[in-house]
Each structure stands twice: as C-alpha cells, then as structure tokens.
Design a protein that fits this description.
The complex is a heterodimer of chains A (about 210) and B (about 190). Chain A is mainly α and about 210 residues long. Chain A has one domain. Helix content of chain A is about 75%, strand content about 0%. Chain A contains nine helices and no strands. In chain A, helix 2 packs antiparallel against helix 7, helix 5 runs antiparallel to helix 8 and helix 8 packs antiparallel against helix 9. Chain A is elongated, with a radius of gyration of 21 Å. The two termini of chain A are about 30 Å apart. With about 190 residues, chain B is mainly α. Chain B has two domains: about 100 residues, Rna Polymerase Sigma Factor, Chain: A; about 80 residues, Arc Repressor Mutant, subunit A. Helices cover about 65% and strands about 0% of the residues of chain B. Chain B is built from nine helices and no strands. In chain B, helix 3 packs across helix 4, helix 6 packs across helix 8 and helix 7 packs across helix 8. The longest helix of chain B has 22 residues. Chain B starts with a helix and ends with a helix. Classes of the chains: A mainly alpha (about 210), B mainly alpha (about 190). The interface between A and B is medium-sized, with 25 and 34 residues. Chain B: Keywords: DNA-binding, Sigma factor, Transcription, Transcription regulation. Chain B: This is Sigma-70 family RNA polymerase sigma factor. Chain B: InterPro entries: RNA_pol_sigma-70-like (IPR039425), RNA_pol_sigma-70_dom (IPR014284), RNA_pol_sigma70_r2 (IPR007627), RNA_pol_sigma70_r4_t2 (IPR013249), RNA_pol_sigma_r2 (IPR013325), RNA_pol_sigma_r3/r4-like (IPR013324), WH-like_DNA-bd_sf (IPR036388). Chain B: Belongs to the sigma-70 factor family. ECF subfamily. Chain A: It comes from Asticcacaulis currens.
Chain lengths: ~210, ~190
C-alpha cells in the first residue's frame, strides 16, 4: 500500500545524500578511454597504414588517408553529443548531431555511382575486399564491449524520455569511433568498401544494441 | 528581493543535489500541489494521488539528472509527463491536453505554469509529427483558424486539411498510448 504523502516526503528527505549531477564530461571521458584503447589495439596489433607513417606526405599527397578517420571521428563525437543531450528527462537531440552518418552514406554512394559511371563495376570494385572481416569484427566487437561497459557506468544513471534512441546514439558514437580508429590502419579508401564493410558493421552494432534495448 | 517560484525551486533543487534536506523537503512539499494540478488537468480521473507519489519518488531517484545550470521547470514537467504517459499506458486512461491552453495568458497567481507547461507538452507532442501535419494542427487547433483559412494558408484543400487534422490527432493519441477503443468510443 502507498504511504501517505507526508510520510513519503519525510522518508525521501531523511538521510539525504549529495549527488553528483550527470555530466557530459563523464561520457566524454569514457569515449576518450575507449578511443585510446581501440587505437592501441588497432595500431599496436594491426599497425598504421603506410601513408600515415609519414605525416608530411599524408598531409600533402594522400589527404583522404587522414580525412577518413577524421570523418568517422566527427560522426562519433556528434553521436555522443546527441546521446548526452538525450540523457536527461527533458533532453532532445538536434538532427545535425545525427547528420554525419547519412552524409557519409550519401557521399560514398555518390562516389560509387561516379566510379561505376566512369569505369564500370569492374573498375569501381578494383581494390577487392581485403581485411573486410577484420574491419567488421573490430568495429562490432569493440563497440559492443564498450556498450556493455558504459551501461553500468553511464547509461543506467541517465533518465531519458527516449531510452532506446539514447542507447542507439551511444552505440552509434562508439561504433563510429571504432571505425575512426580502424581507418588509421585501413588502406581501403574506395566508396564501395565503406558502403559494404564499414557501414554494415556500424549497422550491425545498431541492430544488436537496438535489440538489447528493446 | 524575493525569488519567483521557478527560481526558488531551482535553488532548492541545487541544494538537494548538495544533500541539504530542508530545502529539499520544502521543494517536495511545494511540488505536491503543483503535480496535483498538473495531473488533474490532464487525467480525467480524481485518482491522481498514486501518480503524484510515483513522480515524487522519480524526482528523488533521478535528481542527479537535473542540470543545475538549466531551468528547473522543463525538467520537472518532463518527469511528470513521463510518469503520466507510463500511467496511461499501464491503465489505458484518457489524457486530456487542451491544445488551446497555449493561448491562455500567463497568470502570475498560478505562476504562469499551466500555460507554459502546456505549451511545452504541445511542442513535444507536435514534434513527433511530420512538419506539415504539425503545422496544420497548430494552425487549426492552437491558433483556432477555420478549416478554410488553414486551407488558404497551406494551399491544401479543405478536405485534405480535415484528413490531416484527424490523422494527426489520432497519431498523437496513439503516441501517448491511449488504447484505440477509448477514443473511438467518444
């Protein structure tokens, strides 16, 4: 039976303890730790792509080698910004925080269309699918492990009005940060590779986390 | 200089986060009648006491999610709204949100809260609809324009406006979990 209100208020206020307000810094800190661990994993075990070993050459000759990890990193930080905005009861995320992923999809699809239009499918798919399994597994495993870890450390402390969207934006953030880390190793810059390996891996993380948060 | 009620509640909530029991007790005591008015206005049932208590417990359990630099009223309104929606989903009660509450003048004696909170509720509800549909409902139901005026402003036929309003309101009812039979019976 529910107790009368006066008793309830007394019960809630007795032994009141200070609480730390939910902070964006906590999520950012967890994301930085995740990024650092993933970078150590990718660069320590797989190694950095050769063009990036010489940063001067990367800046002048193969800018896309830097652009790819930066693009994924931007997508990751934007998604985590959205997750932070959604973490409070009155919170809502801005559409621009979730825009990077569709932008990547559209730009890569356009790139593939252009490549096919100018050289046919054979030329567009010339690079093959080397490292696809490794890329997919790195993104999926690291993002899912990160989600298991941040659930008690951060997710359970939130009070979102859209808990499933919150979970999905956090998962998107960690999956795209993992993609950014892997992109420092991966020499496959062709649009078809992003469309058929990176994006499905990110999509798989979203499916798994969407199912977890149902 | 005395503080307005929202400012006072904001200060009391900040103090509660620091672990100060007295301001917290004052806040919860002051929230009771406010929540009571909030729920009675929306729930066509006198039985709101359980809901008030559930909301007070939620305020206590989730007090760390209040951002001390942000206004307090949107936070408490969101907590109350979620508890109301949970309640409606659980018991299939009817929720009453007057769309024209938005136009009520701000009443200092009642802290201006019903109008501002209703405005926020309506914004939240309408944001779930496509932009065009939300605009038509806002023009017809909130700004009280006639179907003909809405038709002229939006470039849609009167029949199309009618259909958009009907479907939009149905979608809004579904979104807060009101069982189909409850509103179809009306």
């Amino acid at each position: 039976m529910v107790k009368p209100p006066r008793d309830l208020i007394e019960r809630l206020t007795e032994d009141l303890r200070p609480v730390k307000p939910l902070s964006a810094w906590r999520l950012l800190g967890l994301a930085l730790v995740f990024a650092a661990v993933t970078l150590i994993w990718v660069l320590g075990i797989y190694g950095m792509r050769p063009e990036l070993s010489d940063i001067e050459a990367a800046l002048t000759q193969t800018r896309f080698a830097l652009f790819k990890p930066l693009l994924w990193g931007w997508a990751g930080l934007s998604a985590l910004h959205a997750a932070n905005a959604l973490s409070r009861p009155e919170g809502r995320c801005h559409w621009s925080d979730l825009a990077p992923l569709p932008l990547i999809l559209i730009s890569q699809a356009t790139g593939l269309w252009w490549a096919v239009a100018h050289g046919g499918w054979t030329a567009a798919l010339k690079g093959g699918f080397g490292g696809a399994t490794l890329c997919g597994l790195t993104i999926i495993v690291s993002a899912c492990v990160a989600m298991r870890l941040i659930t008690p450390l951060w997710l359970n402390r939130t009070a979102s009005s859209q808990p499933r969207l919150l979970r999905l934006t956090a998962a998107l953030g960690f999956a795209t940060l993992a993609a950014a880390a892997y992109a420092l190793h991966c020499p496959m810059d062709q649009p078809y590779y992003t469309l058929s390996v990176y994006l499905p891996a990110v999509g798989m993380v979203l499916l798994i986390e969407g199912w977890q948060g149902r | 200089m005395s503080l307005s009620q929202p400012d006072l509640w904001q200060q009391q909530m900040r103090a509660a986060q620091r672990g100060e029991a007295e301001p917290y007790r004052a806040l919860l005591t002051a929230l009771r009648p406010w929540l009571s008015a909030y729920f009675r206005r929306r729930l066509q049932s006198p039985d709101t006491e359980d809901l008030i208590q559930i909301t007070l417990v939620a305020v206590h359990e989730k007090r760390h999610t209040y951002d001390p630099t942000a206004p307090f009223m949107p936070w408490i309104a969101a907590v109350a709204r979620h508890k109301l929606i949970d309640h409606v989903r659980k018991y299939g009660r009817y929720v009453h949100v007057e769309l024209n509450e938005m136009n009520e003048p701000v009443d200092e004696a009642s802290l201006g809260l019903p109008a501002t909170i209703a405005r926020r509720d309506i914004q939240v509800l309408l944001s779930q609809l496509p932009v065009d549909q939300a605009r038509v409902i806002r023009l017809h139901k909130v700004e009280e324009l006639s179907l003909e005026d809405v038709s002229r402003l939006t470039g849609k036929s009167v029949a199309a406006v009618k259909v958009i309003v009907h479907r939009g309101l149905k979608k809004l009812r579904d979104s807060v979990g009101v069982p189909r039979k409850v509103y179809e019976d009306e």
